[in-house]
TrEMBL record:
The chain crosses the membrane at residues 22-45, 57-77, 111-133, 140-168, 174-195, 207-225, 231-250. Keywords: Membrane, Transmembrane, Transmembrane helix. This is ABC transporter permease. The keyword Acyltransferase does not apply. Pfam families: ABC2_membrane_6.
Length: 262
């Protein structure tokens, strides 16, 4: 465990070398929040849709904008680069678990983004756009739990793309497709309460809503406790199922590894 913690700390430290990137990310977050705020101001005005007003939608948009920087789906790019350069071979023979190494690396990066990007962006957004407090202490605790679930599922989805890259030797198309599915079905831009009933049914059958809609909706108290409990249990089931799937794929992948460039 200590080894993986050190990997995470190393990733965090390495990110400190890219200080100029922090300002660009802060600017990008503020611009994104500004655009979303103006969109919802134009759509909602002073009214409400499905019991949700402008302040709630601004808070919802801020949470999802900042959450996107913390998700671990981007680890597939790291594996793809290792496959192309051939460094994957040396990484696999090290006396450690490669999946846990990826997880530690991703969490180190997420911690860096939280400290230097998400929290400063949240303060700026709160000052200029407003940010509602959580619906209750219980909702805040459940929000933290939903964030942990979002990180777990995002890692497993990113890892799944990484493993499929062992066969395809290129993750771009899969990563692009995954990004599209997340954009549509996570509810990050358009919450589920604006979806047609048929789309809501489909979305709740997929794992993507845990990467956007659920944390924000829990924070705002926009869904009942019964639905929160049901979705969290379903999310745990998705985590277990994806874990079994990636473990099976991993065992097959390491037996047919063909490295490009090495």
């Amino acid at each position: 465990m200590k080894t993986y913690i050190m990997f995470g700390v190393k990733t965090f430290s390495n990110q400190l070398s890219y200080r100029s990137e922090v300002w660009l990310r802060l600017l990008g977050n503020v611009v994104a929040i500004l655009i979303l705020t103006e969109i919802w101001r134009a759509v909602l005005g002073d009214g409400e849709v499905e019991g949700v007003g402008l302040e709630q939608m601004i808070t919802y948009s801020i949470i999802n904008t900042l959450l996107a920087a913390l998700l671990l789906t981007g680890i597939s790019a790291k594996v793809d680069n290792s496959l192309k350069t051939g460094s994957i071979a040396s990484e696999l023979i090290k006396p450690m678990s490669y999946p846990f190494h990826l997880l530690a690396d991703g969490l180190g990066n997420s911690l860096y983004q939280l400290v230097f990007t998400s929290l400063p962006s949240l303060i700026i957004a709160w000052i200029f756009f407003g940010f509602l407090p959580p619906a209750s202490v219980t909702h805040f605790l459940l929000f933290i739990l939903s964030l942990v679930l979002a990180l777990a599922i995002s890692f497993l989805l990113g890892y799944l793309i990484s493993l499929l890259a062992f066969w395809l030797m290129n993750h771009f198309a899969l990563s692009w497709m995954m990004g599209g599915l997340i954009t549509i079905f996570s509810g990050a831009f358009l919450p589920l309460w604006f979806f047609p009933e048929s789309w809501v049914t489909v979305t709740k059958m997929l794992p993507f809503l845990y990467l956007g809609y659920l944390p924000a909706a829990v924070y705002l108290g926009a869904i009942s406790m019964e639905e929160i409990g049901s979705l969290l249990l379903t999310g745990l089931a998705w985590s277990a199922g994806l874990t079994l799937l990636v473990c099976w794929l991993w065992n097959r992948a390491i037996h047919r590894l063909v490295v490009q460039g090495g």
